[in-house]
Write a structure and sequence with these properties.
Rossmann fold; 6-stranded mixed beta sheet
């Protein structure tokens, strides 16, 4: 239940802090006093769309706080746990707006998203205004009422899950068929491309190796000639002395001189190192010269291999052999998948058929559950309407088959006639006053099937007067015995039924709300009966109305 509301700088409300009791709470006030402002502030803290034009003149922001007693509300406690929010017996919601357009939401001082606040608010307060009678024209609203009454909500949620599963299975099947058709068109091309790449026996890194080898083969004669020329000083023809032999003689003569010139000892060592280094160089040059192959056959093979690689890279848009290998592997996977396609298609078709079968079975079960409740639902509402002085009214619920979907395969229509003849859709047949009474009857009935702790009626009695208004007040009063009910009303017959009565008033363009004491309440009822001029007769009538309400 709503325990209290605190408002700061919201439109014409400067500062307001009000507490509310259990039962039926009446809110009244003259036209323009600010009842709609109070309702707007409550809607804001429950997650309604923010508008920074609602910020009052006393600052750059406004704040609305609402305090709720949530003890015993298991659905609400489960929501708080799922969203990692503090689970306390007292729940505090806060919403702030700034002129910059920023909106901030808090639950027990923890920041939350507006969507979370909206979902939480929908579990705490059901706000019904006279305009919400238009909800009767909504298919989803009518279905919600029938499914709540028939106990079909869990079954409907299961049906919705089955529908989503069917949609997913159907989508997967269609996507696979589309992909398979595309793959079928590309299959021959892919097969030829794969065979071409596979036959090439591609080796990672071979392109660079072959390009290097080609350079050697193309210049093999020049390379061999140059290396032979480089080796000539090491092994000259005839009786010429080789480079290493000459260096050995230099070393021998230097060592001989070092016996007399000690400073040459180091030089002799260096000559030894130089000689050994030259011998190593000669060995490497000789090895390189012998490895250079002058082979027209090998040259031709390398050229042909490189030509093949270049052709494949150009055809497949590749710049390396590694990319060709990756393309070959990709094509191989596609061809394997195509080979498995018939089996995959059968599996997807089976899954789709099973999902369809499950959804169809749930649709039938849901239809049967709804159909079984039609007569009882209609009779309950019709009985309530007659208590509200629509003695000749006839109300019934009709189910018509429609294409299966998330909510089953039924359309729900509410049929109504105030005279008992010529039943028509409620939205076409009922007047404003009749719609108000019908909506109240539905709300009263559904209050027994929901865990909604607080219900707020905003002038649901619009278009109703006299004894019918008194009956509406009695019904709202009975609802207040099981839950907290707020009634914003202009009818004294309804106002007299409340356990507490609050007056919304405006003075110097500032809206305020106050709990009326017995004598103040008497005068407010008298004003509601007679207008702004409170006469002795109006006070007497007010006493009678309050007395009758106390005996109700």
């Amino acid at each position: 239940m709503l325990r209290g509301l605190t408002i700061s700088n919201y439109i014409l409300i400067d500062s307001l802090d009000v507490s509310f009791p259990e039962g039926l709470v009446i809110i009244s006030g003259e036209t323009g006093a600010g009842k709609s402002i109070l309702l707007g502030a409550l809607s804001l803290v429950l997650g309604a769309k923010a508008d920074n034009s609602a910020i009052g003149p006393h600052g750059d922001s406004c704040v609305v706080e609402a305090c709720f007693d949530t003890a015993g509300n298991e659905t609400l406690q489960a929501f708080l746990k799922e969203n990692d929010l503090p689970c306390e017996p007292v729940l505090e919601l806060r919403r702030t707006l700034s002129r910059s357009g920023r909106s901030r939401c808090f639950v027990n001082d923890e920041p939350v998203a507006v969507a979370q606040l909206q979902e939480l608010g929908s579990m705490l307060v059901d706000i019904h205004s006279q305009h919400q009678s238009l909800q009767l024209a909504s298919e989803s609203f009518r279905m919600q009422l029938l499914d709540l009454y028939s106990g079909a909500m869990d079954l409907r949620r299961e049906c919705a899950r089955a529908w989503r599963k069917l949609q997913e299975a159907s989508s997967a099947l269609e996507q696979f068929k589309s992909q398979r058709e595309q793959a079928r068109r590309e299959s021959e091309f892919n097969q030829a491309a794969f065979e071409r790449l596979d036959a090439a026996k591609l080796i990672s890194g071979e392109l660079e190796q072959l390009e290097g080898e080609l350079k050697q083969l193309e210049h093999a004669d020049q390379i061999k000639e140059a290396l032979q020329a480089a080796l000539l000083p090491f092994d000259p023809p005839g009786e010429a002395v080789s480079l290493t032999r000459s260096l050995r003689e230099v070393q021998r003569q230097t060592e001989k001189s070092a016996a007399f010139l000690p400073k040459l000892e180091g030089l002799a060592g260096r000559l030894e190192s130089a000689r050994l280094e030259l011998e190593d160089i000669a060995a490497e040059l000789e090895s390189a010269e012998s490895s250079v192959e002058v082979s027209p056959e090998r040259l031709e093979w390398v050229q042909e291999r490189l030509s093949l690689l270049y052709t494949l890279m150009q055809r497949h848009g590749a710049s390396t052999v590694e990319e060709l290998i990756a393309e070959r592997d990709r094509l191989g996977v596609l061809l394997e998948a195509e080979a498995d396609a018939p089996e995959q298609l059968r599996a997807l078709e089976k899954a789709q058929q099973e999902a369809l079968k499950q959804h169809s079975a749930l649709c039938k079960e849901l239809h049967d559950k709804r159909a079984a409740a039609l007569e009882s639902f209609s009779d309950t509402v019709q009985k309530q309407l007659r208590e509200l002085e629509l003695e000749h009214a006839v109300f019934c619920v009709q189910l018509t088959p429609v294409s299966a979907g998330a909510n089953g395969s039924d359309a729900v229509e509410f049929m109504f006639s105030s005279t008992g003849k010529n039943l028509q859709s409620v939205s076409k047949a009922a007047s404003g006053g009749e719609l108000s009474r019908l909506m109240l009857s539905l709300k009263a009935m559904m209050a027994r099937y929901t865990a909604m702790p607080t219900l707020l009626f905003d002038e649901i009695d619009s278009g109703v007067s006299g004894s019918a208004a008194d009956k509406m007040g009695s019904l709202i009063c009975r609802m207040g015995r099981d839950m907290q009910v707020f009634a914003i009303t202009h009818l004294p017959q309804v106002a007299a039924k409340g356990q507490a009565h609050y007056l919304v008033s405006k003075s110097d363009d500032v809206t305020s709300i106050s709990l009326l004491q017995p004598d103040q309440r008497l005068r407010e009822i008298a004003r509601m009966l007679s207008g702004s001029s409170i006469t002795p007769e109006a006070l007497a009538n007010a006493k009678r109305v309050l007395s009758d309400a106390a005996n109700d």
